[in-house]
Structure formats: C-alpha cells, structure tokens
Design a protein that fits this description.
CATH superfamily of the largest domain: Aldolase class I
CATH class of the largest domain: Alpha Beta
Shape: globular
CATH topology of the largest domain: TIM Barrel
Strand order of the largest sheet: 7-6-5-4-3-2-1-8
Largest sheet: 8 strands, parallel
Number of strands: 14
Structural class: alpha/beta
Order of helices and strands: EHEHEHEHHEHEHEHHEHEHEHEEHEEHH
Strand content: 15-25%
CATH architecture of the largest domain: Alpha-Beta Barrel
Oligomer: single chain
Number of domains: 2
Number of helices: 15
Helix content: 25-40%
C-alpha cells in the first residue's frame, strides 16, 4: 500500500521567522510555507535552502487565511513560486472556478499541472455535495485536489475516504471529530496530511504524530483502537496504549474518537475495521442499547466502558474504569498517574489478552506530564 506523507505547516510574521520555522521542520516529508501573514514577504527568499519538498500557500481571508491583499497580487506571488521551482502551490477551488472574479487562477492551475493543488475548505460543516464538488474539481483539470471540511460525526469523515480512494487527493476532517483523518491518513487513502501548531482546527504537531501515534508505522495490517466520547481529544490513554503497543512489538494504534453517539462510533469502527475501544462517561450508558453483546458485568451495571471486536460482532464490558481513574484528561501528581496507569493496563489486557511491558505506561505518563505540565 502507499503510505501517506506528513506535511508540516509553518508560519511567521516575518521572513526570518518563516525561514526559521521552515528549517526547523525536520520531522516531516513536506513543508507547507504559509506566505499569508508575513509582513516583509519576498517569495524569492522563501525557497532557497529548503531541505524538504515545499507547498507554497498564500491563503486569503475569505478562505480562512490571513492574506488581505488584492487577488492580482496573490496570483503574482503564486506564479513566482512556481517559476522559482516550488514543488507545489496551493490554489483555492473558488478562485479556479470563478474566472470572472478571479482571472488568471485557472490558467495558473493548467500551467502548473501536477504542481498545483486545488483546495476547498469548510470550517463550519461537512458539505452534503462533497462528492459532486470533488468531481467538479477533478473535471476542471486539477491533477491534485485537497478537501478539508468539518465533520459533526465520525461517520461524516467516510465521505472523505471515498473521495481519497479515487486517487490524487488530500482529505482532512478538521476539528476534534476529524482527528482520525489526520492520524489514520493512510487508512483514509490521503496522499498526505498536515501537522502543525494549530494553523487549522485539529492540527497536531508532527513530532507528536510520529512519536506518540507512530504515524509512519500505520498500514493496512495495523489494529485500530479508540478512546470514544466527548473527552476523547484530551484523554491521556492513547499516549499510554501506544507506548505499550510499541514496547510489546504490536502493530496497533489507539486514537481519539470524539463523538457523543456510540452508534456513530460503531458505524465508523465497522467501516475502518477497529478492534476495540474504551468508552467515556458521555457514551457508556448508551452502549448497552446497541447491537454490541453485553457481558454480565455490563448488564449488571447497565452501562459499558469497554468494547472489542469478536469476529464480525462487538462485545462490551464494564470494568468500572471511571471509579478507578477514568479517562483522565490531565495528569497531576503521582496518585493520578498511578490511577490512570492502572486503568490503561486493564484496558490493554482486556483488548489484547496480554499484559503490557512493566513500567512502560508509567514512563509514558511521566513523560507526558513533563512535556505538558499543568
């Protein structure tokens, strides 16, 4: 299978800041240079000396960026980037299709060929006409398309996967609900995904994607696990589980799945072939009213905080994880660390049938506390 690449988005308010950020982006396969927001912008100074293939983007305010100049000036900047050898430039679909309002952008796309990414962004919702939009973008002559939209449900992201499967596409679900499209970009079929320090909603620093989620190791054989619920994006347990998976030599990853609907999770998990999940308090009471087979512990409690796939069906159980420390969203003090590690170790054993390597989860929790102190 073709593995998705990782692109780091870098910004700056001055050329010096932009170049410094570009040169510091050593963990990624590509670098996106955001020219919008640079006060003393000189395209000729942004590209020489780069160590990674580069995407040049100058995002206008009307598409969520910071460029406030006129479109003629923006067209010149992107044209200059192509002339100077930029591997890619990003051009908005709106500018390509509206030739009357944005003259020259369609011609730029056609002249740039494989080096032009035609992009569409929706920061508020997941458009219902997404497939139609993707088809129109491709039909316009775009060789590479990028679609970023904001899902309300996990299952909304499956429309992005369908688009990516047709080839030549970068697809992204923005915000917490779309995190899986970034972390599991390979499983979604995206050519690459973007990491960074919050330039777009839901972006994760590349170093974190590589270290904590083993982004480069995820393939078709990777067993997928999730932390499900409203607190998923802040949960510590993915960090602990991924450290334990690595120490045990297991091709597996645990990712946050932000949703308040356990049925939404199950439909999404079936589509991507997840192997298991932990369920936070926002969804655990609804879990026993699903198609999952509840064991005696779950039936007695009237709720479930764990799920795992058994063949073609799902099994749920209640291990009392909330009372044992639950899906803690912060780590503070040795008692809290011990409680979270105890919970995660029980989860790991229930999912995999084996105990985690001793001390690995504790070390991961302490490292996370040191990296992100309260």
């Amino acid at each position: 299978m073709s593995h998705s690449l990782l692109c780091e988005t870098v910004t700056g308010t001055t050329m010096a800041e932009l170049i410094a950020a570009r040169d510091a982006a050593t963990a990624s396969d590509l670098v996106e240079l955001r020219l919008d927001g640079v006060d003393d912008l000189q395209v000729a100074g942004a590209l020489p000396g780069r160590q990674r293939p580069t995407i040049v983007t100058c995002r206008p305010v009307w598409e969520g960026g910071r460029f406030e100049g006129d479109e003629e000036s923006r067209l010149r900047l992107l044209s200059e980037a192509l002339e100077l050898g930029a591997e890619y430039v990003d051009v908005e679909w709106r500018a390509v299709r509206d030739t009357a309002r944005f003259p020259g952008f369609e011609a730029l796309m056609r002249a740039g060929g494989d080096r032009v990414i035609v992009s569409s962004h929706d920061f508020d919702a997941m458009p219902q006409d997404l497939a139609v939009r993707a088809h129109a973008m491709r039909r316009s002559g775009a060789r590479m398309i990028k679609i970023a939209a904001t899902p309300a449900r996990l299952t909304d992201t499956l429309a992005l996967r369908d688009i990516a499967r047709e080839g030549g596409a970068v697809v992204i679900g923005m915000g917490n609900t779309g995190l899986s499209t970034r972390l599991l970009a390979t499983r979604f079929g995206s050519r690459w995904t973007y990491g960074g320090n919050g330039v777009a909603p839901g972006q994760i620093p590349p170093a974190r994607m590589l270290r904590q989620y083993r982004f480069k190791s995820i393939d078709d054989a990777t067993s997928l696990y999730g932390v499900v619920g409203k607190s998923a994006a802040r949960a510590l347990s993915p960090v602990l589980h991924n450290a334990a998976f690595a120490a045990a030599g297991l091709n597996a990853v645990c990712v946050p799945l932000h949703t308040a609907d356990v049925h939404d999770f199950l439909a999404f998990a079936d589509a991507l072939n997840f192997s298991g999940a932990s369920l936070d308090e926002s969804v655990e009471r609804d879990a026993t009213a699903t198609s999952m087979q509840s064991d005696e512990l779950a039936r007695r409690a009237g709720k479930a905080d764990m799920a795992r796939r058994t063949g073609s069906s799902w099994e749920s159980s209640y291990l009392g994880l909330t009372s044992a420390g639950g899906e803690l969203t912060q780590v503070a003090g040795s008692d809290a660390i011990a409680a979270q590690v105890a919970v995660a170790e029980r989860q790991f054993e229930w999912w995999t049938g084996q105990r985690p390597v001793s001390g690995v989860m504790r070390a991961a929790a302490e490292l996370e506390q040191a990296s992100n102190p309260i």
